């Protein structure tokens, strides 16, 4: 039986900064969510995790009596390279392989490893499992994952498309199949994850055959502050004519571009509100954002030959009827037709938003990467799968 819901959930933020925050969510007897917020300096990850353990076993806020009660610990790991095609039990060999992938994800894999090492020392009686953001995309064929660069760059340096948000794409695809009363292996789907980062995936008979993020999470859709697809020659222009260093260019593309670069704002709620007031740059930012998504819907429909279902997820995809509508507008000849009322009503829970005449079902489904990681972890432990390095 799969795990259906969390007993507790939370987040520790601003670790190592002058003020830290731990937000701990728990439930009362009626199932209402209650919050305990602790504002205090969190000097490092070790102290932060120990504070969380105190909350886990606390008589009032916790759910267990002793940390030894945990059956397993699941870890999100961003980059599993080509080695990891499924979740795996963590051992020293797995840690060494995750380290080898640091050049492919220098911002993500090091903190993931810190989390694993600390959690293994604190929860030393429990098995630990790594669930990779890249693993779900390992079914993508070479014609879609290779760049048209010298082949030796792939052979020697593994430069290729990997894709991210895999846990979320798989979770919502499985939820879509359940909602539609089908098996995932019988469906062709386009999944659209729109959070601060954003990506799309094309799933043929339930298996991923293409995705919009690449070697890194910078490729593809327009994001909160990342540019997504651009002409690579822009980098030469920035370096040669504007004298920008590689470091400055990296920052520009990752932190100062996307929605923020166009209109100065990366929170989609603000952008939608400003668009409604007629703000030119906010309207433009939303238009560029949705135009890119629409282009990918067209491309992935062609890749799949036929698409049964489009799923919107992530903070923006789950909540913004305005963005969902802009992405699907003008696609009725492709069989994609939104029902305005259903779209306006859909917010934060699974809903079908396509009209009767739409041959492609359109769904909005809240993602739950933590729940998926918990279930993948349970599966690895129950099947007693040893570390799976390919
Ligand atoms: P993360 O990628 O950090 O997990 P989320 O999936 O939480 O991000 O998505 C964050 C984005 O969702 C923000 O841009 C936020 O503005 C947007 N968002 C949340 N609620 C709404 C809403 N009702 N309308 C439009 N955008 C929303």
Query: Which shape, going by the Cα principal axes?
Result: globular
Hetero compounds: adenosine-5'-diphosphate
- The CATH class assignment of the domain at 183-369 is Alpha Beta
Query: What percent of residues are in strands?
Result: 15-25%
Percentage of residues assigned to helices: 25-40%
Would you mind describing this structure in some detail?
The protein has 390 residues and is an alpha/beta fold. Among the domains are: 1-69, Double Stranded RNA Binding Domain (2-Layer Sandwich), CATH 3.30.160; 183-369, ATPase, nucleotide binding domain (Nucleotidyltransferase, domain 5). It has 15 helices and 12 strands. It has helices at residues 45-56, 92-100, 109-122, 142-145, 151-157, 166-180, 233-240, 246-255, 258-263, 268-276, 280-304, 314-319, 321-328, 340-345, 369-382, and strands at 9-13, 20-27, 33-40, 73-77, 88-89, 128-132, 189-194, 198-204, 207-211, 309-313, 351-352, 361-364. The strands form 3 sheets. It has a 6-stranded mixed sheet, with helices on both faces. Helix 10 crosses helix 11. The chain is globular and about 60 Å long. It starts with 8 loop residues before the first strand and ends in an 8-residue tail after the last helix. Bound molecules: adenosine-5'-diphosphate. Adenosine-5'-diphosphate (ADP) is lined by residues 195-197, 224, 267-269, 272, 314-316, 319-320.
């Amino acid at each position: 039986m799969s795990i259906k819901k969390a007993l507790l959930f939370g987040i520790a933020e601003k670790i190592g900064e002058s003020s830290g925050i731990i937000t701990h969510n728990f439930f009362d007897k009626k199932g209402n969510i209650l919050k305990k917020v602790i504002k205090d300096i969190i000097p490092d990850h070790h102290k932060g995790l120990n504070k969380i353990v105190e909350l886990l076993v606390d008589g009032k806020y916790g759910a267990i009596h002793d940390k030894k009660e945990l059956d397993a610990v699941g870890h999100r790991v961003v980059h599993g390279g080509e080695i990891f095609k499924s979740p795996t039990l963590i051992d020293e060999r797995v840690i060494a392989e995750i380290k080898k992938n640091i050049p492919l994800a220098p911002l993500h894999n090091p903190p993931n490893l810190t989390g694993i090492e600390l959690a293994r020392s604190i929860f030393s009686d429990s098995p630990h499992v790594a669930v990779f953001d890249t693993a779900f995309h390992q079914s993508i064929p070479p014609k879609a994952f290779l760049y048209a660069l010298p082949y030796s760059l792939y052979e020697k340096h593994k430069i290729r498309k990997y894709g991210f948000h895999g846990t979320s794409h798989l979770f919502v695809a499985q939820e879509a199949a359940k909602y539609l009363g089908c098996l995932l292996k019988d469906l062709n789907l386009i999944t659209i994850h729109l959070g601060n980062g954003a990506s799309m995936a094309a799933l043929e008979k339930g298996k991923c055959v293409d995705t919009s993020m690449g070697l890194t999470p910078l490729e593809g859709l327009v994001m909160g502050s990342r540019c997504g697809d651009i002409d690579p020659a822009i980098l030469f222009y920035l370096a040669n004519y504007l004298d920008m260093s590689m470091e400055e260019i990296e920052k520009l593309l990752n932190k100062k571009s996307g929605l923020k670069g166009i209109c100065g704002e990366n929170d989609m709620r603000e952008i939608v509100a400003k668009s409604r007031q007629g703000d030119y740059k906010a309207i433009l930012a939303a238009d560029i954002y949705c135009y890119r998504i629409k282009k990918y819907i067209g491309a992935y429909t062609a890749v799949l030959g036929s698409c049964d279902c489009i799923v919107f997820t992530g903070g923006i995809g789950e909540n913004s009827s305005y963005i969902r509508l802009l992405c699907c507008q003008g696609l009725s000849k492709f069989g994609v037709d939104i029902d305005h009322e259903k779209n306006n009503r859909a917010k934060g829970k699974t809903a079908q938003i396509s009209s009767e005449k739409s041959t492609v079902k359109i769904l909005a489904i809240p993602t739950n990467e933590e729940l998926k990681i918990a279930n993948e972890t349970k599966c690895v432990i129950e099947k007693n799968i040893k570390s799976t390095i390919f």
